[in-house]
Structure formats: structure tokens, C-alpha cells
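TASK: fixed-backbone design
INPUT:
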């Protein structure tokens, strides 16, 4: 695994989503995705790939409603596996389970796509070595091509035992209502750099990664923020290398008109489409 998710970079650490039925969702996230329960309380569960690192928090609001279409929020969160062999084991597991999936080769990565029982989008992928990525005028070449599934399956015949150690949250892809306003917030406010464009979408990163964050208007220009009790994104974390870097960002997002709330252990803000961000330290 390369160093795109380590200091001094700013990167996504953890994601929290709402689900309709916590017990049902836990069955999926343990048996299909391969996460373990780290903490469990009434209406909430924290999941981990390694028994110690929080990766995904599931919450079941008491008044939860199904996912609301044509709103901002989660397109997918993306779980990054350490190696192609790990992706091979996961792909074989999915095929044997019969769970529906999609797949794509993005040049920089090879990816599998699926939805959880409530329609929350998930990507599970592996990166090609960054030495194989192609850059031109500051932009990285990415596309959506057919995945070499047979080639991936040939990488390993190991038995699936859940997500491997070293699994991390690779990136998050968000629906927004105004692409230009979101782009300004993530670049001028949070300090990310634009690394690729796609129709109605922008990809952003720090430290030369292919993307830590993507934003799109595929749910429609002007898509509103969904209700807080609907299935979908609660918040995601951005991990900062130190407090000085975080305070610099806090100042900049406030200058852009964003509100900032400080809590014990994190600082929370929201992008212009209402996607909540918790800024945490390593």
C-alpha cells in the first residue's frame, strides 16, 4: 500500500451511514463485505476490518425513512484493499455468494460495485501502482472500462475470511446540488486539488492520489439535502496531519460562509450541499 492515506496528506478515514434495520444490515456487512463489529449499542454499530480501526459506522434512527432519491449525499464509499490478490479473494467470494455486483477498470484501479440492502453504494477496489498512472497537465487519466475478471480471479485461490488487515477507506464519492460551489469549497476551503474531470463530476485529492473525494450532480442540478433521518450518509471524516493544518482549513471554510462546530475529538462542518464532514487528527 502506498502512502496516499498517511500524513502529510488529508484523506478520508471513516464513514457513517443510516440504515433501516441495523440487525439486517449487520448481517450484510459481516457476511458479504467482511467487516467485524468493533462496538455495538442500541441503534448503532461501529465496524472494523482489523478488530481495532473504525471504518464504517451504521446507525438506525428511531424514525428512519428510506433513501430519498434526487438528493445530495452518498453516491458510494470506497473500501481499498491492499493487493490485487485480496481483490481476487473478494471477487470469488461475491460470485459464490450470488450477490449482485458491477465492475470496472478505471486505469488507476480495478473496482467492484455493489449496494447494501438499503441502496447505500459501496465500491471495493485495489489500486494499480502509482508509477503506472498517467498524468497530463496535472490531471490523471481515468476511465470506465471492462474489468479483467478472469485475470483477477487467477491472482489467488485463497479462502475468503473477511477483509484483510491493511484495508482502509480509500475515497468517498458524493452527490452535490451545485458542482461549482462544491468545487470551491473542497479546493479553496478544504485544500484539495482537482485531479480529474468527468461529465458532471470532479475528482479531488491531496498528495497526488487519483482521488480521495469525488463530487457529482448526477442526482440533478439543485438536488436538495436529504432529511437527517433518511437512509444515506450521516458524516465522513477527513484525517488531518496536525491541529495547525486543521485550524487553517477551519479559517478558510468559515471565510467561505460554512458553519463550524467544535466537539470533543473532532471539528464538524458541511459542504454547500449539506454533506457533513468531521475533521479529525491522526
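OUTPUT:
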Amino acid at each position: 500500500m502506498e502512502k496516499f492515506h498517511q500524513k502529510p496528506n488529508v484523506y478520508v478515514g471513516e464513514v457513517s451511514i443510516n440504515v433501516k434495520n441495523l440487525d439486517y444490515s449487520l448481517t450484510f456487512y459481516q457476511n458479504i463485505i467482511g467487516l467485524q463489529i468493533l462496538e455495538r449499542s442500541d441503534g448503532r454499530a461501529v465496524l472494523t476490518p482489523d478488530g481495532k480501526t473504525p471504518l464504517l459506522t451504521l446507525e438506525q434512527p428511531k424514525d428512519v425513512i428510506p433513501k430519498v432519491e434526487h438528493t445530495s449525499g452518498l453516491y458510494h464509499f470506497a473500501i481499498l484493499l491492499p493487493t490485487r490478490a485480496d481483490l481476487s479473494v473478494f471477487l470469488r467470494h461475491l460470485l459464490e455468494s450470488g450477490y449482485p455486483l458491477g465492475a470496472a477498470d478505471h486505469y488507476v484501479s480495478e473496482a467492484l460495485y455493489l449496494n447494501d440492502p438499503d441502496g447505500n453504494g459501496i465500491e471495493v477496489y485495489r489500486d494499480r501502482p502509482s508509477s503506472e498512472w498517467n498524468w497530463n497537465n496535472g490531471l490523471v487519466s481515468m476511465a470506465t472500462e471492462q474489468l479483467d475478471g478472469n485475470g483477477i480471479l487467477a491472482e489467488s485461490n485463497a479462502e475468503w475470511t473477511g477483509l484483510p488487515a491493511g484495508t482502509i477507506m480509500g475515497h468517498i464519492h458524493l452527490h452535490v446540488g451545485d458542482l461549482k460551489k462544491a468545487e470551491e469549497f473542497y479546493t479553496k476551503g478544504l485544500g484539495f486539488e482537482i485531479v480529474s474531470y468527468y461529465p458532471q463530476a470532479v475528482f479531488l485529492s491531496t498528495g497526488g492520489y487519483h482521488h480521495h473525494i469525488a463530487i457529482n450532480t448526477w442526482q440533478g442540478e439543485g438536488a436538495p439535502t436529504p432529511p437527517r433521518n433518511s437512509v444515506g450518509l450521516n458524516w465522513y471524516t477527513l484525517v488531518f496531519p496536525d491541529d495547525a493544518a486543521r485550524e487553517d482549513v477551519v479559517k478558510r471554510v468559515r471565510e467561505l460562509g460554512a458553519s463550524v462546530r467544535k466537539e470533543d475529538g473532532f471539528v464538524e462542518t458541511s459542504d454547500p450541499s449539506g454533506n457533513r464532514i468531521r475533521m479529525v487528527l491522526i
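COMMENT: The CA atoms of residues 72 and 176 lie 5 Å apart.
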